[in-house]
Amino acid sequence: MDRPLPADPMLQIAGAFRRFSEEFTLGPLDLAIEPQEIICLVGHSGCGKSSLLRLIAGLDRAERGSIRLDGVELAGPNTFVEPEERQIGFVFQDYALFPHLSVEENILFGLGRLPRPEAQKRVADMLALTGLSALGKRYPHMLSGGEQQRVALARALAPKPAVLLMDEPFSNLDRDLRDRIRQDTIDLLRKTGTTAVIVTHDPEEALSSGDRVVLMKSGLIVQAGTGRELHDRPVDRYAAEFFCSFNKVPATYRSGHLETALGRFPCRLDLADGSSAVAFIRPQAISPSRDRTAIAGSILRRSFRGEIEQIELAVPGNDGALIMRTTQPTEGDHISVVIDPSRVLAFAA
Amino acid sequence: MTLALSTQTTGRKRAAGSRWLKLAALTAALVCLPFLALLFEAVQGSQGLWSHLAASVLPKAFLDTAILLAGVGILVASMGTGAAWLVTAYEFPGRRTMEWALLLPLAVPTYIVAYAYLDILHPIGPVQGAVRWLLGYSSPREFRLPDIRSMTGCILLLGFVLYPYVYIATRAMFLTQPASLIEVSRTLGVSRNGVFRRVALPLARPAIVVGVSLALMETLNDIGASEFLGVRTLTVSIYTTWVTRSDLPGASQLALALLAVVVAIVAAEQYARRKQRFAANAQRAGGSIERQRVSVPKGLLLLALCLLPVFVGFIAPATHLAVEAYTRLGYAGLPVRFLANISNTVIFSAAATIITLLLGSAAAYAARLHPGAPSAWFYRLATIGYAAPGTVVAIGLLIALGAFDRTADQLASSWFGFSTGLLFLGSGAALLYAYSTRFLAISAGAMAAGLSRIPQSLDDVSRMLGETASGTLRRVHLPLSKTALAASGLLVFVDCIKELPATLLLRPLNVETLATHLYGEAARGTYEEASISALMIILIALLPVIWLARVGRGEHR
Predict the structure, then answer these.
(1) Which residues of A touch B473 (CB under 8 A)?
(2) Do B461 and A90 touch (CB under 8 A)?
(3) What is the predicted pLDDT for the residue at B19?
(4) Which of A325, B111, B247, B276 has the most CB atoms within 10 Å of its CB?
C-alpha cells in the first residue's frame, strides 16, 4: 500500500457515544478512516457495528461526540446534517432495491440533482462498471441475488458518495458466489477510489476484504489494524479467538517462557515468575514430525476436509484433545508432532 | 472534495420531517373536537331537561337498542358463520358463485333494504297480493302477513344486509386454517359434522367477534331502517330530539349515552379477541381445509341455503328497485332534481375522500417517520371516528362548528358590518368534516398496512440517496401502496355516498344527496319516487363489493 496519505482523514469519528438501553451502549468510539481506505468493521451480532454505521449515515444520532467528513462536521454538539445531505452511500443487507422501479430507475433514484442527460450517462456508466448493462430494464424481482447486490452497489456509488457504507453486503449470497462477488466489489471500490466501511460478522471476510480491520465488542473497539496484525498479534483472548480457534493449554510463566505439558514457548508477558498463564496454540502450528524431540500422541479422531485434515490427539500430560490441522498425509493410530513456537500466543490466566 | 453544507438547509430539512408529525397532531385534534364539544354541551345541559329525557325517552330507547343489537348480533353471527362454513367445507353446484354472491347484500344500505321491503311487503304489494291470490282471499282485510314495521322486521332486515361482515371475516379465518387441524381432530375421533362445532367454530371465534361488532356498529349508525320500521332506538331518539325539539343539550346527552354503548361493544370485542394472537400463530404450514363432496340433492339444498340470504338481502330488493325505477322512468322520466342530487352526492363524497386519504396518510406516515408514543397516540385518536355513529359525530359538529359560525358572524358584523352567515354549516364544510372524521380509520388503516409491508431499509436508502421524508413518500411509499390506497379511497367514497344520518343533519340548506332524497321521499310515503336514487346508491356500492370479491378469489386460488 504505497498511496500518499493526506493529512486529514476522510472520515473522523471522535468520542461518539449513544445509549440504546440499560444493557447496551455504543462507544465512546474513536476511528479515523483515510481517503480511499477500505475498512472492515467486524464483530459478533449485537456488538454495535451496524449501529455505528447508522450513526455515520445519520440514520441515527449520537448523544455525544462528533463525526466529520472531509473536515466538515456532520454531527456534533450543535450540528446534525440529515442523511440526505451527507453524501454518504449505503448498501443494505437486504439491498433495499425499490421493487417498483427498474434497475436503471433504481440507479437513477439518487441522481436527481444532475441534469437529465448527465444522470442517464452516469447510469449507463454504472451499469457497465458492474456488468449489468443487459439488465437495465429488468425489475429487482427478476434478478438473482448476486445481480441484486450489484444493483444495490451501483445505485449507492452512482451519486459518487464521499464514503460508502455497506452493512453485511454479502451475507445473503450463496457461499460459492459470495467470494467472487466480494472480490468484484473490492476491485470496483479500488477502481473508483471509494472510501468504504464494510460491516461483516464473518472473520474470514473481514481479514480478506479491507485495508484495515476494526474488531468490535459490546459497543467498543477492541482492536484496529491490518488483517495480518489482528490475526497474528491479537491484543486479547477475545480478539485471538474471534479469528481462529485455539488449543488452550494451561501454563506457568517463568523467565520469559511459558512452561506447559507440551513444552516451553518463549513469550512476552508482564507477569511475575510462577504466575499461571494460558498458551494459545493454533491447530495449524502443530505438524507431524519424525524428530526425536517430537511429542507422541494417539489419534482419537480424524476428519478429512479435502485440503487439510483435522486430527484430535490424546497427548500425555494434556487434558482433553489437542486439535491439529495439517496438509500432510498421516497414517496409523499414533503420530508424533512438533509445535511451531512462533505461532503460540500467551495470555495471563 | 468539498461538501457544501450549511446549517440553514439542515434546519429546513429537519422541519420537513416533523411537518408530518404536526399534520398528524392536527388531524387527531380535529377528529377529537366533535366528541369534546359533545361532552361540553352535555355537561352544560340543564338538569331539568335531562331528568325528563332520562324518564321518558331513555329507558325505551335503551331497551329497543339493546333488543335490536342482540337480535341483529345473533342473526348475523349465525348466518355469516354458517354461510362461510358451507362454502369452505362443502363442494356443491354453484359454490364458486355463492362465494362472492354472498357478499352482495353489503351493497345495500340498511335504510334502502327497509325502504324496499316496506314496498315489497306492503299489504297491497306484490308479495301479499300473491299470497292472497294463492290462498284465495280477495282483500287485505281478510288476510295479511305480520307487519314488517316491527322490531322483528327490523332485526330480520338488518340481519340480512349486515351478515356479510361476519361472512367475510369468518371465511378468511377458515381459509387460513391448516387442513392438518381438521385432519388431526378426525384422527382423534371427531366426526365430520363435529369438526365444525369442536374445531372450526372455536378457531373462528375472534373473526366472528370482529364481524359481529362491525355489524353492530352499522346497526347503531342506522337511522333510516329503524325509523321507517317504527323502532325507536337511541340513534333515532337523538335525531328527533334535535330535529323536532331543537334540543341540542338533550341530543348531546343521548349521544353520549349512545357513545357509551359503542365503547361497550368495542370493549367486548377487544376482550373476546384477546386470544387471537394464538389463533394467528397457529395458522402456518399446510394446505387449507379440503372440501367435502356431497350428493346432488344435498348439494342443491346447500345451494338453496346459501341463496336465501343473497335473495333476501340483495336480489329481491335490487330487482324490486330496478323494476320500480324502470316504471318511474317510463311514465315520468328522470326526477327533476335527480342530476343535481347525483352531482351533489359525488362532489361531497369525492372531496371528503380526498381529505380523508390525505389526513389518513399523514397520520400513518407520521407514525412511521417518528415511531414513539406521540405519533402512536395521534394515530389512535385520528381513527376513533370509525366506531362513532354518524348522528353522534353530527351532533358534536353542530355544537362545535355552530359556535364557531356564530362567533365568526358576530365578529364580522361588529367589526366589518357584514354577516358571514354560517361558514361551516352553511357551506357543506361541516359535512366534509363529518365524513372525514367517520372514515379516517379506513384510509389511515390502509396506509398503515401498506407501509408495514415496506421494509424500513427502503426509507433509509432513499434518504441516503438524497431524498427527503416527503420525497420518499412520493417516490417510494405512494407508488408501492397505491393499490391499497386506491381501494381504501373507493371504500371511503362509497361509504360517503351511503352515509345518511350525518348527511341529514349537516348538509347545507336546499342541498339533497341521493341518500337524503330517498329519506325524504320515504318519510312522505312516496316510495316509488326515490327508487332511482336507491338503485343508484346500490350500483355505486357494488363497486367495492366487486373489488372485494376479486381480491378474495385471487388470494385463495
Answers:
(1) none
(2) yes
(3) 87
(4) B111
Residues A56 and A194 in one domain: yes
Question: Are A338 and A191 in a shared domain?
Answer: no
Q: Does position B491 have pLDDT exceeding 80, yes or no?
A: yes
Nearest-CA distance from B480 to chain A in Å? 7
Q: Which three cell numbers stand for residue A82?
A: 440529515
CB B434 within 8 A of CB B33: no
Which of A224, A242, A260 is the last residue before a domain boundary? A242
Q: What is the mean predicted confidence (pLDDT) over A310-330?
A: 87
Q: Whole domain around residue A283: which residue ranges?
A: 245-348
Residues in B touching A87 (Cβ below 8 Å): 3
Give the C-alpha separation, A200 to B416, whole Å. 71
CB within 8 Å: B467 and A93: no
Query: Which residues in chain A have Cβ-Cβ distances shorter than 8 Å to B9?
Result: 85
The C-alpha cell at A347 is 495470555
**Residue A98 covered by a domain:** no
On whether any CB of chain B is under 8 Å from the CB of A114, the answer is: no
How far apart (Å, rounded) are the C-alpha atoms in residues B24 and B551? 30
Q: Are residues A269 and A237 located together in one domain of the fold?
A: no
Cell of A61: 444520532
- In this predicted structure, the answer to whether residue A290 has a pLDDT above a threshold of 90 is no
How many domains, in total, are found in chain A?
2
Name residue, grid cell 321507517. B228
Q: In what order do the strands lie in the sheet containing A247-254?
A: A263-266, A257-260, A247-254, A276-281, A344-348
A325-339 pLDDT, tens per residue? Answer: 988 888 888 888 999
Q: What span, in angstroms and rounded, lies between the C-alpha atoms of B550 and B356?
A: 25
Closest of B413, B451, B427, B417 to residue B507, by C-alpha: B427
Instruction: Flag whether residue A8 sits within 8 Å of chain B, measured between CB atoms.
Output: no
* Model confidence pLDDT, tens digit, residues B319-364: 999 998 898 888 877 777 888 999 999 999 999 999 999 999 999 9
Q: Does residue A225 share a domain with residue A295?
A: no
Residue of B nearest to A81 (CA): B10
> What amino acid is encoded at B354 in this protein?
I
Query: pTM to 2 decimals?
Result: 0.81
Q: Please count the residue pairs, one from chain A and one from chain B, whose beta carbons lie less than 8 angstroms apart.
A: 85
Residue B193 pLDDT class (50, 70, 90 cuts): confident
Residue B268, CA distances (Å) to B213, B263, B265, B274 in order: 9, 8, 5, 10
The answer to whether B13 contacts A85, with C-beta atoms less than 8 Å apart, is yes
If you ran DSSP here, which 8-state letter would residue A146 be given?
A: H
Whether residue A251 is found in the same domain as residue A210: no
In a domain, A171, yes or no: yes
Same domain, A185 and A73: yes
Q: Of A242, A273, A298, which one is at a domain's C-terminal end?
A: A242
